[in-house]
Structures are given as C-alpha cells and as structure tokens.
Write a structure and sequence with these properties.
Blueprint: H1 5-15, E1 24-26, H2 28-34, E2 38-42, H3 52-61, E3 69-73, H4 77-89, E4 92-97, H5 103-111, E5 115-118, H6 123-137, E6 140-141, H7 148-164, E7 170-174, H8 179-191, E8 196-202, H9 207-214, H10 241-248, E9 251-255, H11 257-269, H12 281-287, E10 297-301, H13 308-315, E11 320-322, E12 325-327
Parallel strand pairs: 2-10, 3-4, 3-6, 4-5, 7-8, 7-10, 8-9
Antiparallel strand pairs: 1-2, 11-12
Bound molecules: pyridoxal-5'-phosphate.
Length: 334
C-alpha cells in the first residue's frame, strides 16, 4: 500500500466545500514567546469541531454503492467524523469507544445519529469489539488512522498550510495513531522537501514514539490524560501510518500533563480559543523549551471537544485528578 501527493489532491476534491479551508491565524503571544511567526491552523472550526471530518469524509465517500453501514473505534473525534459523514451518505455508523472517552464526546456522536458501544478500558478493547462486529453485522471498518483515504483526507491540511504560508519552516503536529502527522508530512514534504515536521504526544502513553524507537508497533499502557484524544495504541498490525511517521517525521517530542495544562490556559487566555488538551501539545513543546522554533512555525488546533467541566476547572486553576495522579492546579497569569 502506498500513498502519494496525488491521493491527497484527490481527497481535496472530495472535501471541497464540506471540510476544508479552515482559518490559519497568527498567535501574537506565541510569536512573542518564541521570536518567530507562530500560526494556528483552526481545525476546531470544522463542522464536527475537529479535523477528523476530513479523513472520515474522504473514506466514506469512496465506499461502494450498497454499503449499509460503517464501524470504527474512536477516542471520540473520529467517531464524530464518521457519524457525520455516514449521515450525509444515509448509512449506519456504529462507534466503539472505551470507558476513558469523555461523556461529551459520547453525546456528540449520538447527536449526529451514530450508535455508540462502550467496550472495555482501552482503545485496544474497542478495536477488538469493532472487528467482531465487522464479522457479525457486515459493517465496513474505518480505521481512525491506518487507512489510506483517512490519511489522505488529513493530508489536505498540509496542502492548505503550505499554500497559505510557503515560508513555513516547521510544523508541530499532535501525534497519536499518526494519521494526521503522516498525511500532513506527506503533503508538506512533497511541496517543500526541507520543511521540518515534528510529532508531539503526551508523556504518558505515547504509542507512536515508543513504536518508532522500537522499530515496530508496540503496546503502551493507556492511562487518563488531559490530551485524551491522543490516547490509544497504533495497532499491532499497523500497515501505513507507522511506516509513514517513521520515515517522514523529523522528530517526536513528549510533553507532560502539567505542560499541557498550562498550554490550554495560554491558548484560552491569550488566543481566546476553547480547545482540547490534544491541541496544545505544539504550544506546550515551545513554552517548555523542548522545542525552539527558528523560522515561521505552525501548529494544528486539532479539535474543540473537551469535557467542558474539566475545561472550566483548568481555566479556574484547579487541581485535576487523572486516575492515579493529580495535576496540580495553577491560576493563569504572571
Ligand atoms: C485524533 C486526534 C489527534 C491525533 O490524530 P492521529 O491521526 O491519531 O495521530 C489529535 N487531536 C485530536 C483533537 C484528535 O481528535
């Protein structure tokens, strides 16, 4: 299975007018912090509140006539994208999710007409259940990241970024299963081979980074994180997003829960953007000094679907319990 720029250009035609052309806006605060132009690609403005609509639409629109339904496992936003795209095609969507997925994401999927199944404690449990239902109910599985059409759909963000700002030096990409990073890196490097693309995950449960280090897909323990959309494994049988990330990413970095907490406050108080923990890992990497931009830099604000109760507590500077650990609160300000 290979994937090329032509697939991403084809995806763009499918997505035109439905899931494209999100704003790319400057962050004056991050520019002042880093000394470089710093741009935010606002995928939180997508109809489902996350970039996942791109990949899901591109995959569902390619299914043959007569397909009755689709199934996927999801940390929430892929499920929303699949439910939205399935409704547009008039077919069933079944979404398998683990108990770690926030309530708000479950409700969001149901509101779009998706059928939700809660299965087990991890993304791996959800994946096992979805594969069983493929057999039992004749549904077509749509992987959240290891699918050529999903990756091509996410890759259209790379086209938009480089068309808007051909001078971009570095892209900081939130990294989980790697569909987003693989697609964006493929598009960006096809257009501008010397651009740097860096994948960023949370320290606790960074499956792609561990897999790249090991040279093959490995499992990591899945624990609660402020970046809940970055949770879950990459699949032991990963065919596409793993080799693409391994070959195309210039580096992978990890940020802590405290760094994510602070960066969520920065994005809200400085840029006035409501977003999930997963979105701010690029900001967190710069603010913590783990990454130093030396040219125009962009990151992708991947989604705006946090648990709003938790979001409110973080903005108020309260402590947050994540399973076994507590992220110590700190109110925002100098
Ligand atoms: C899915 C998701 C990501 C990560 O995308 P991958 O393709 O799995 O690497 C990042 N942020 C948000 C909000 C997401 O929903």
């Amino acid at each position: 299975m290979t994937l090329a720029l032509a697939d991403i250009l084809a995806a763009r035609r499918v997505l035109h007018g439905v899931a494209d052309a999100t704003p790319l806006v400057p962050s004056p605060f991050m520019a002042a912090e880093t000394g470089q132009d710093f741009l935010l690609k606002l995928e939180n403005m997508q109809p489902i509140g996350a970039f996942k609509l791109r990949g899901a639409m591109n995959a569902l629109m390619a299914l043959p006539e007569g397909t009755t339904g689709v199934i996927c496992c999801s940390t929430g936003n892929h499920g929303r994208g699949v439910a939205y795209a399935a409704a547009r095609r008039g077919i069933r969507a079944v979404i398998c999710m683990s108990e770690l997925v926030p309530r708000a994401k479950v409700d969001g999927i149901k509101a779009l007409g998706g059928e939700v199944r809660i299965c087990g404690q991890s993304q791996d449990d959800a994946l096992a259940e979805s594969l069983r239902l493929v057999e039992q109910e004749g549904l077509v599985e749509i992987s959240p990241f290891d699918d050529p059409r999903v990756i091509a759909g996410q890759g259209t963000i790379g086209l938009e970024l480089l068309e808007a700002r051909p001078d971009l030096d570095t892209l900081l990409i939130p990294l989980s299963g790697g569909g987003l990073a693989a697609g964006v890196a493929l598009a960006a490097k096809a257009i501008k081979p010397d651009i740097r693309v860096i994948g960023i995950s949370m320290e606790r449960g960074a499956a792609m980074k561990a897999s790249i280090a090991a040279g093959l897909p490995v499992e990591v323990e899945e624990v609660p994180s402020l970046a809940d959309s970055l949770g879950g494994g990459i699949g032991m049988a990963n065919k596409l997003s793993f080799p693409l990330c391994r070959d195309l990413l210039d580096d992978t970095l990890l940020v802590t829960e405290e760094e994510i907490y602070h960066a969520m406050q920065v994005l809200f108080y400085e840029d006035r953007i409501v977003a999930e923990g997963a979105c701010v890992v690029g900001l967190a990497a710069c603010l913590s000094g783990k990454f130093t931009p030396n040219g125009p830099t962009a990151t992708i604000i991947t989604g705006r679907n946090p648990d709003m109760g938790m979001f409110h507590r973080i903005m108020a500077g309260e402590d947050i319990r994540l399973g076994e650990i507590i992220v110590k609160g700190k109110s925002y300000g100098p």
